[in-house]
Amino acid sequence: MTDLTALTLDEARNGLAAKTFTAVELAQAHIKAIEAARALNAYVLETPEKALDRAKASDARRAKGEAGRLEGIPLGIKDLFATEGVLTTASSKILGNFVPPYESTVTSQLWRDGAVMLGKLNNDEFAMGSSNETSAFGPVVNPVLPANWSQEQAREKLKSACDRRETEGWEAPAETADLYMKFAKRGYGYGPEAAKELQGLLVPGGSSGGSSAAVAANLCLGATATDTGGSIRQPAAFTGTVGIKPTYGRCSRWGIVAFASSLDQAGPIAKTVKDCAALMTSMAGHDPRDSTSVDIPVPDYEAAVGKSVKGLTIGIPKEYRVEGMPPEIEALWMKGADMLRAAGANIVDVSLPHTKYALPAYYIVAPAEASSNLARYDGVRYGLRVPGKDIIDLYEKTRAEGFGREVKRRIMIGTYVLSAGYYDAYYLRAQKIRTLIKRDFEEVYARGVHAILTPATPSAAFGIGEKGSADPVEMYLNDIFTVTVNMAGLPGLALPGGVDAKGLPLGLQLIGRPFDEETLFSVAQVIEDQAGRISAKRWW
Amino acid sequence: MSVDAATVRRIARLSRIALPEADVPVMQAEINAILGFVEQLEQVDVEGVEPMTSVTPMALKMREDVVTDGNDAARVTKNAPQSEDHYFLVPKVVE
């Protein structure tokens, strides 16, 4: 039989419908693949028993003629989504033992439509990062091999890191240790010393690095992800997968661990444009429990896939031609424009003059909201608690022990920019600039532009341990092309446009009008048809 | 704008994060790197620009003022590090 994990979501759906294989067989194939790929560290928790139970129930539903639109499709879930009765840690020590008594709206809609959960996926701690290296579970390894590396060389690296993690690593909280211990003899994930052994292998992007790596390595047919400044699109670009951040308000944020509430949106990462559209159709929709979720009907996004782009106007913003951008990325961008031109779209130059201010404004708005959202982690109601001599001491010790470096720094920046005397100079000014960024897009769309084409990232995937250790801003610059979209609340889709001279995937980004994800799916399919898919060869 | 060590200690206190003295210089340097990066926002003319309060043009919805949830103390306190009779336990706060 063919390798079931190599199928796309759409192909698997057809195979299930034609009874070529069952949901149980499909789940088993993925469970086996996940076990064999533990060294990639994409999953932080595997739920094989649950997956098989749900697959069995799915087969039963199908036999009764009650198949949903994602019936029997095995998915990975970013560990930022609350899953009832299943550990949900946000890859933070402070939530290391948190078992939610409720299910996030987005995941509940996926289960409603018949999907099957394989486990929880690694991410940057509280989704704060662009390389998955801030995770308390340690880095995720990109299944894409570094340039000029042999498979043996990469396997050696993984092996020495795995040997290392048997002697170090984060001790699981006692209440949940048995769940984690299935992974490793001692500890779980990669500790700082083991992570050093991984240097040279590539990061999968972040914060949804577990999601992008799992999809690229065929460890699920699709994954949930979240995007606050690029956390779906940049990992998709780094791994040669497809990801979409929908319009703000399109998906409910209820039950998703909050980072920056005015920017956070959930979306899928998958192997193809069509697979992404299928997942979006289930994930989107109004939810009375999220007052910012929008009460407008959800279209069948798959119907937009394959639609002609003839006569559509696609904008090319000159401000995305940034200093120091590799010529290969510029060339890929122009090739993307040519593909759309060949399909009958009109390509026009547009201007988004405030683009360069989006990233600095983001680094005021996002930490400010984070400092407020993360105030809830106080060692009293849930999560880690470190005893103190009084309540303040308890708070301070708990938060010092429970949060990682990146998270602490962002909370402190946020606290500073919101503090008395600095609010106007920082936060208020940043929110005014956000208005200007949004206005730039509105003016372009008012001129009849249907979508905007840009590169997804200023570089291909970089190495583990390579960036941001001396200057945090170096890491932040990764999100320069994606962050504007969050600031303006627009939909953005990233997909593979090709590979660079060293064979690493490069992504293109399509930015749409509010609530017009459909045009993005139509345009993206045209690019996918011409650029082709990128699939990583198994070496781990 | 940049922050001095005393300000870093004050922010840590406001953030309720214990910051060991040895970590203050590193945190100070990192915060200043970020503040240096965001300084370019001063170049933008924001005269007369409304600060963004909602990224989508919609009014915040109000729901019916009715009880929809509750009477579930066991589930609410289930994840508490320390609880007793459905109360959260904390160190003494009132002398």
Question: What this model shows, in words?
Answer:
The complex is a heterodimer of chains A (540) and B (95). Chain A has 540 residues and is an alpha/beta fold. Helix content of chain A is 38%, strand content 11%. Chain A contains 18 helices and eleven strands. Chain A has helices at residues 9-17, 23-36, 48-63, 105-112, 151-165, 177-180, 192-197, 209-216, 233-239, 273-283, 327-342, 355-373, 391-402, 405-418, 424-446, 472-476, 483-487, 517-531, and strands at 43-46, 74-78, 116-121, 222-227, 242-245, 265-270, 313-317, 346-350, 451-455, 492-499, 505-512. Chain A is globular and about 65 Å long. Chain B has 95 residues and is mainly alpha-helical. Chain B contains three helices and two strands, in the order H-H-H-E-E. Chain B has helices at residues 5-14, 24-38, 73-76, and strands spanning 83-84, 87-88. In chain B, strands 1-2 form a two-stranded antiparallel sheet. In chain B, strand 1 (83-84) and strand 2 form a beta hairpin. The two termini of chain B are 41 Å apart.
How are the elements arranged and paired?
The complex is a heterodimer of chains A (540) and B (95).
Chain A: H1 9-17, H2 23-36, E1 43-46, H3 48-63, E2 74-78, H4 105-112, E3 116-121, H5 151-165, H6 177-180, H7 192-197, H8 209-216, E4 222-227, H9 233-239, E5 242-245, E6 265-270, H10 273-283, E7 313-317, H11 327-342, E8 346-350, H12 355-373, H13 391-402, H14 405-418, H15 424-446, E9 451-455, H16 472-476, H17 483-487, E10 492-499, E11 505-512, H18 517-531
Parallel strand pairs in A: 2-3, 7-8, 7-9
Antiparallel strand pairs in A: 1-3, 4-6, 5-6, 5-10, 9-11, 10-11
Helix pairs in contact in A: 2-3, 8-9, 12-14, 12-15
Chain B: H1 5-14, H2 24-38, H3 73-76, E1 83-84, E2 87-88
Antiparallel strand pairs in B: 1-2
